[in-house]
Structures are given as C-alpha cells and as structure tokens.
Give the backbone structure.
Amino acid sequence: MDIFNQTACQLIKMLQSKEITSRQLVESVIDRIGAVDSKINAFVYVDNTAALEKADEIDARRANGEPLGALAGIPVALKDNLLYCRRPVTCASNILKGYYSSYNATVVEKLIGADAVIIGVANMDEFAMGSSCETSCYGPSRNPWNQDCITGGSSGGSAAAVAADETILALGSDTGGSIRQPSALCGVVGMKPTYGRVSRYGLVAFASSLDQIGPITKSVADNALLLQVISGYDHRDSTSINEDVPDYSASLGESIKGLKIGIPKEYFLYGMDSDIETATKKAIETFQQLGAQPVEISLPYTEYAIATYYIIATAEASANLARFDGVRYGNRAKDADNLIDMYCKTKSQGFGAEVKRRILLGTYVLSSGYYDAYYKKAQKVRTLIRDDFSKAFQKVDCIVAPTSPTSAFKIGEKIDDPLTMYLSDIFTISLNLAGLPGISIPCGFSKDSLPIGLQIIGKPFDESTILRAAYAFEQNTVFHTQKPNLV
Amino acid sequence: MAFTRQDVDYIAKLARITLSDDEQKNFTRQLDSILEYVNKLNELDTDSVEPTAHILPVQNVFREDEVKPCADSKLAVEQSPELRDGLFIVPPVIE
C-alpha cells in the first residue's frame, strides 16, 4: 500500500492515529509527482520546500497536542487561476508568465486556516477557456488513463493530478463544465457548487456570472470534506450568498430510498457515444435498485444552451480580460509607438488563439448594433433555461445525466475546430447558466478503457442531496476503485 | 459569408488586439461558423421574456464604510512592467 493513493478521509485517520506523519505523506506525494508528472504535465509549479515545511509544522503541532484544522497535513493542488499571496499565478497564459499573487483568494485563506498543505499549482486551459487543457501555454496535460488523450478542461491539471495520485485534493473552477468534464474524463469526483456558495474573491475572472470554484477529489466523502472547508459567505464577493452551510459529510450515509431522480429526455437526443449512453442507463438502474425513483423530465430549451453560453461567457470575458493591458501587471509588449499600440501589441503577443477568439466574439456581441440581437437575446434565453430547471425541480429531488457526450478524445483531435469543441460542453453548460450545483462521479469505462462520468444535478444550495446520491452510488459500485496504470 | 474580414478588423480594433494575416483569416471563418450556430436563438420568440443577468436574487449589496486592513499597496503595484515612484509609466497619451 502506498500513501499517495489513499483518500483524504483515510489519510486523516492515519495521521490522527499517528500511523503516518504529514512529512511522510507530503514526501510520498512529492515522490509521486517526480515519478509520473513528466508523463502527465498536471503541474505548472510545485513548491516542495514550502510543502515540507508546512508538513513539519503540522507534525510538531500534532505532537504537542494542539488543535488542528479539518485538512491538517493533507496536500491540495490549486488551479493556476487562484491567488496565493507571493506565489506564481499565470492562468496558463504568456501574458501573466512571471507574475505572482499580491493577496490570497478566500478559498486559499480557508485552506490555510484548515491547515492544508498547498502542494502546487495545476495546469489549465488558458484563462479557463477550453474543454481539453490544450490551450495552456505550458502544453496540454495528458490523461492518466491514456497519455495520447486529453484530460478535459479547463481544470485538466487539477483532475489529472488527482487521478494520477499526484495530490490528494485539488481545487478547480467551473464556468461551463470546467470541473465536471475533466473529472469525468479522468475518472475522479468533481463538483461545481451553486453559484454564490463559494467565494470567487481571488479567482481570476473569466465569466463572472457563471464562474464557481469547487473541489476535485478521489471520493465523494473527500468532496464533501473539501466543499465544507471552502464554502460560506464572504463580504468581499458581493455575489456570495449568506446561506447556512450544512454539514455535508453528516448526510452522506443516509438512504436514497424514495429519492426522485429526474432523467431529462432531451439529453438522450444529442448523439452521445453509445458507451456513455449504456453507462448512464446502467447507472439509472443502479439508483433504482437502491430505492430511488427515476422520473422522466423535460428540459426543452437544452438545445439552446451552448449558443446562449457562448454569447454570455464571451461577452463577460471580453470585459474581464480588458484589464490585461500591460500597465498594472503582466507582460508588456516592447517597441510600442504609443499607448494604443502598446495595448494592441501586448494583447496580441500575450494571449493565445482561443482567448483572442473569445475576446473577439464577446466584443462583437456587445458592440453597438449587435447588443440586443445577441447579448440581450442570450440573457432572455438564459431565463428560459433557468425556468426549465425550476419546473423540473418541482417534480424531482435531483437530476441524473451524463457529464460529457464522449470519453477523452485524442490530443489535437478538436483543437482546430472551436465549434465542435464547444459542443462537448452540452451537458454541463446549462447548470452554469442556471447557477445550479452538479457533481460528476465515475460510472463506467468506455470500450477503450477510458473513464465515464455521471452527473448529478441539484436544486440551488442543495449540494447535500447530490452528495448523498453520489455517495450511495459510489458505495454500491466499483468504478472509483480502479486506478490508471502509470508505471 | 455573413461575417467578413472587415468585421474581424473592426472588432479587433475595439478589443485592442492586433491580428496577424493568418489570425484574421482563421478568425473570420471560425467566428462566422460560431455566429451562424448562435443564430439558432432567433428561432425563439422571447418578446415577453425578462433577461437574466445573473441567477441570484440580489441587486445592490451594501456594507458599512469601515476602515479595515487591505492588500499591501506596494505588493499590489510592484509588478507593473514599468513603475516609477509607485506610479505606472505608460507611453505618451497626448502627443
């Protein structure tokens, strides 16, 4: 048995019973990164010295009998868009290469408060724009199950690091599926919480009305544990909501007998792979055997979700990324003739193709003469999509669907065809538009032995129910016990 | 083609991004197909639908105006590409 391939919940017990020390755990994870990350490229930055110092500090405090936080001594990886004061943060973009944070994100403060060991920074699509981790300036992360395949994205590094046992826990961010889709494709557990559940303060903004930070973990219980630590109201994020945070771990073992599970009929119309369809249907049967009650529901505006999303998300992105102008931070183009020229050259040299494409699209849909036709129209359809879910949730307690219409595709396969790439977000994007929580859990393997993810969607601020359903499924299936063979 | 190279030039100028010839060509083609796809929304009659800007039932969020510790200002500005006496230096704005 290796230390690095345990879950956080198991490791916390081992640390508490002094079976292992935090130093042994962190050393085990650092060695694992050294052994496999050249194949996976999950990390863009690892700080061994700081991690080991923190581990020693936790061990000393434990030896003295001092009180310790919920994640004491547990390694956590941050996505490269979360600010950790005086540490590098680049959003996997050349425009921020060499930059370090000037303050802590709220989630980072909470991790530090919980005595977690921040092990490093994980790769991502540039500015979280992508579904494959291929738009990173550091090159793509590679799927631990098959290194010719993508990890999914944008939190590809976070999901791959968890799947390859290069960290115990990770944080990602999800704007259109960026936690759930790579979690599905890498065979781990990833949750996008309700919009407003977790503070976005210190998350580099992509699309502010859609972005949400969430946990990526090896098990559902670990997911509940990490969600507990990062959730809660924060006065520094005016869209953070002052709702009570329940004890997520407490309800995990409760029965799902009688739980009404919505099956959206539209989701089975859009050409998902047959492996995905089979695995999803089997999963629904498993829920039925556990006493849950499947109910067919309709989400009629599903087919408009991607179009709506790519208008709203790019519009917001074009405004958010205007700040990278080479004046206050980041890199500045040399040899500019004047101020405007300096802006133009800086953005031209600093941003990659996907980011430019989205800034241009967002600028277009907000430009004079097109605002009503595109942006306002999309905001109205967003209302319809949101109402779809509100109506469905009058009949059911949660909704079950695939996370992604395919398993991991080959690196390079879709990168030159942005529209096809966008279509791979079909099952995840609506939740961001409606602000709903969703969790992806392992539910099978494709005929190429690649992981398949099942998505469970909840009512606003009802993460407890989807965690409970996910836990029941996980405890009665074996998919989560499989590990990629990396050595 | 509904979306032209002139459109790309115009929005690149609005977005303050210089594009290479290749980028102009690719983005014209790609944005044209993306816009054609998003025109799908015109199938829907939304005249009586209210727009959603964000999903939360909050509008303005107020707090007391209290003096509190904030980010270290030196740390906040010291990474500017060009800094003099704590001020950002930019190319001349007025000739």
